[in-house]
Design a protein that fits this description.
The complex is a heterodimer of chains A (590) and B (191). Chain A is mostly helical and 590 residues long. Chain A contains 17 helices and 4 strands. In chain A, helix 1 runs parallel beside helix 10, helix 6 packs antiparallel against helix 8 and helix 12 packs across helix 13. Chain B folds into 2 domains: 40 residues; 146 residues, no CATH class. In chain B, the strands form 2 sheets. In chain B, strands 3-5-4 form a 3-stranded antiparallel β-sheet. The chains are: A mainly alpha (590), B mainly alpha (191).
């Protein structure tokens, strides 16, 4: 670990902190229909959308109607994506003449992008046309993010409102989110990225004449040895910057290219890298402040933020330490960090990004449900790889995905309040609302969905032929590959131990199911909590009320998150990364 | 139910046009106008021919050039097929691959420690850069192949060593393709 490395991490942390309040207050204004400086431009567009779609913007929705609208919209837009993929051969902007996407892959990808997961079983530059990337994949980056944020806002309304049956209007929430929040952020971010060197064009792939042609021996499709001379380099192009912006700001994470944010055309400079990480946390961190504002308790918002920040710092420290130490099995190699080299574990990492920013990115992208990667997680050291795995298993509530991070941590808040209530022997209260059996049941249900999905499917994966066929790294790491895949799917993260060969019928089909369940089965109980809380009376605070602000609450919240996570996943983790670490330090190669 | 379904269908179509088509196309148009060099791939053109991109690495194998990092993209630096090795740290394939590289580099320069980035594959398989340590390691070999003094070569490497961006971000680095492009005019082959 180096001073400059820590300084960059510190700078990132300060930047996130500084943006939290302005972003949060702005988002509160947007969802409470207050005036903003962009109204003159966006209000006419908003009205036009409502007219074209026959939306009545004054209608207020019961949580069941809100949920139904959300499911219908997700279903319809998922179907459209499926057909765009299946028909891309005949659609415009396909200069590389890429074939139609196979049914199982199209299903997996449609589920993946609709659920904000962005798991990718395919190599984009040889699979997806520019049209599919723009109108199918990047489009879903926008709307799946907006859906997540709308759900979080609905829950916050449920907490803030009293004795009402409604929690807002789904169509209005996502429209305002798209226009006022995601669109301006992405517009600015796109140009920042292009200025740094991210490509943005619709041209065919470029062919370069190499300075020094060279010969390679490789195997052809039939396994025969072939000797060929490579004199040209084909360089993939595309409308990347516009997609990169929403990929990060919407915590989607699906790369335009296979190498994702490690690719120099997606993430060309250290500054673009810093900016990408900032975009990941911009909205999730801001939403804690929105929570504080809309519930009238800014200090509660900061207490939640503090709990998240503690978990974030722990993750960064662990990942940075592990990656700096590097891989002791590589003998005769200088791994010492200096001004001349980043040192550490450079397999799967880029020189311009180095160790500190790779470890930071890995932590950030899995704290949030982003899943973009600027280094290959499969090649992380065992403990370095443990960090993203744990982050996702905890529910991606460390700032978390856009919207999903906030509603995810609020579920843990309900659970913490309940446990605190048990300890002092009073009916638990949350910001003046009594938390009763129904709310706790729904909260636990929401947490159980993803845990069950991860453990059951990983277990099936390791005992079936179709599951183990995907393993590409032997030993405990092979188990980790499968565990990571289903963890990523259930948590709607999308990052991977990417060596796993997941473009098979089994993985495409099963992971599609896990992603949909991880998203939609988990949010319906949350909407139920929102609706139930909205209908309750508020009770005045008394001396016996457990405070929702301050360090005691933050520590309790962190403890509950860690206890639930550890009880659920420790056995699985000890079979994977922990075992691999112990074998690695004793010199074992698999 | 019917009403919401109808809204869902219309909403999908309307927003696809706005965010799936209008948004990327407007950004494309403006980028082509404001940043044409970057938007089209930061290509390097010599004598009217595209010879590569500043941002995309290439394979160099002769002693006369600086070498890039090992690559797992296709047959090596295949820029239409980006990929890391995705080998786990405990995977025998990785350990043996690195050992073979170490043995090769030892024969080439027995004095300096071997920088880790020179024997590990990058995440994209297209990393255009190496660390300053990895460039320094190769100086004796390239100087010998070109029959020039190491000092002259070091000066050229220093010229191509990029500091942290704005003095803060990332790591110091050397762009291999740009350095090699400068080698030929600076030190023409004598044989």
């Amino acid at each position: 670990m180096t001073g400059m490395g820590w300084f960059q991490i510190f700078l990132y942390f300060v930047a996130v902190l500084a943006l939290t309040k302005p972003m949060g207050l702005y988002m509160a204004r947007v969802f409470q229909q207050e005036t903003t400086f962009l109204d003159f431009l966006l209000r006419p567009v908003e009205r036009l959308i409502y007219r074209l779609c026959a939306v009545d913007e004054r209608q207020e929705m019961h949580w069941k109607l809100y949920g139904r609208a959300m499911l219908l919209f997700s279903g319809v837009s998922m179907l459209l994506l499926y057909f765009i993929e299946r028909l891309q051969r005949w659609l415009p902007w396909n200069p590389e003449k890429l074939a139609n996407v196979a049914p199982d892959l199209a299903w997996n990808t449609a589920a993946s992008f609709t659920t904000n997961t962005n798991w990718q079983s395919y190599v984009p530059e040889t699979t997806m046309s520019y049209f599919t990337q723009m109108a199918g994949l990047a489009y879903h980056n926008f709307v799946s993010a907006a859906v997540g944020i709308a759900l979080a806002i609905a829950l916050v309304r449920g907490i803030a409102e009293r004795e009402t049956k409604t929690i807002g209007n789904f169509w209005v929430d996502i429209t305002r989110c798209l226009l006022w929040i995601l669109f301006p952020v992405c517009l600015i971010a796109s140009f920042v990225f292009v200025s740094q060197g991210v490509v943005q064009n619709l041209k065919p792939y470029v062919t370069a004449r190499l300075i020094e042609p060279h010969a390679v021996d490789s195997q052809d499709a039939d396994g025969r040895q072939v000797h060929k001379v490579i004199a040209e380099q084909r360089i993939a192009q595309g409308p990347v910057a516009s997609q990169e912006a929403i990929k990060m700001a919407g915590t989607n994470g699906g790369g335009f290219f296979n190498a994702n944010s490690a690719h120099p055309y997606e993430n060309p400079t250290p500054f673009s890298n810093f900016f990408q990480m900032l975009l990941i946390f911009l909205i999730p961190s801001g939403l804690t402040s929105t929570l504080g504002r809309m519930t009238g308790s800014p200090r509660h918002g900061w207490a939640v933020w503090t709990a998240m920040a503690l978990l974030f710092l722990a993750g960064v420290f662990a990942a940075y330490a592990a990656e700096s130490r590097g891989n002791p099995l590589l003998r005769g190699v200088d791994r010492q960090a200096s001004e001349q080299q980043a040192g550490g574990n450079m397999e799967g990492k880029e020189v311009r990004i180095g160790i500190a920013n790779s470890a930071l990115f890995t932590t950030v992208t899995t704290d949030a449900s982003c899943g973009a990667v600027n280094n290959m997680h499969d090649s992380l050291t065992p403990l370095g790889g443990l960090v993203p795995l744990v982050n996702i298993m905890l529910g991606e509530i460390v700032f978390g995905g856009v919207g999903s991070g906030l509603y995810g941590i609020l579920v843990f808040v309900v659970l913490s309040v309940f446990i605190a209530g048990l300890m002092v022997g009073r009916t638990p209260e949350y910001l003046g609302k009594k938390i009763e059996a129904y709310d706790v049941k729904m909260a636990v249900l929401s947490i159980l969905v993803s845990s069950l999905m991860i453990l059951i499917f990983a277990a099936i994966g390791v005992v079936t032929k179709s599951g183990t066929a995907g393993i590409t790294n032997p030993g405990p790491h092979g188990f980790s590959q499968i565990l990571y895949a289903y963890t990523s799917a259930a948590g709607n993260n999308g990052s991977a131990f990417a060596g796993i060969n997941a473009n098979t019928l089994w993985y495409n089909a099963s992971m599609g199911v896990v992603m949909l369940a991880g998203r939609f089965l988990a949010v319906i109980p949350i909407l139920a909590i929102a609706g139930n809380l909205a209908s309750k009376k508020t009770v005045p605070e008394s001396l016996g009320t457990f405070p929702m602000t301050g360090p005691l609450f933050s520590v309790l919240l962190v403890s509950v998150i860690l206890i639930v996570g550890a009880l659920t996943f420790f056995p699985a983790l000890s079979l994977g990364p922990i075992l691999e670490h112990l074998r690695m330090v004793s010199g074992k190669v698999f | 139910m019917n009403k919401e379904l109808q809204i869902a269908i219309r909403f999908t179509l309307v927003t696809t046009v706005i965010f799936g088509l209008a948004y990327p196309l407007v950004i494309t148009g403006l980028s082509q106008w404001l940043f044409p060099h970057q938007a089209n791939g930061s290509l390097i053109i010599h004598d009217g021919r595209i010879i590569g991109s500043q941002l995309i690495g290439q394979t160099f194998s002769s002693n006369r050039y600086f070498h890039a990092r090992p690559s797992s993209a296709g047959d090596g630096y295949d820029a239409a097929n980006s990929s890391g090795s995705n080998l786990a740290p405990t995977n025998r394939t990785l350990v043996e691959r690195v050992q073979a590289e170490v043995a090769r580099l030892r024969a080439e320069n027995s004095n300096a420690p071997i920088p880790v980035d020179l024997v590990t594959a990058s995440g994209s398989g297209l990393d255009p850069e190496i660390s300053p340590a990895a460039a320094e390691f190769q100086v004796p070999r390239v100087a010998q192949a070109r029959h020039i003094s190491q000092e002259l070569l070091r000066a050229l490497v220093a010229k191509h060593t990029e500091a942290r961006q704005f003095g803060i971000f990332g790591e110091p680095r050397v762009n291999v393709l740009e350095l090699n492009l400068d080698l030929d005019p600076a030190f023409p082959a004598k044989n």
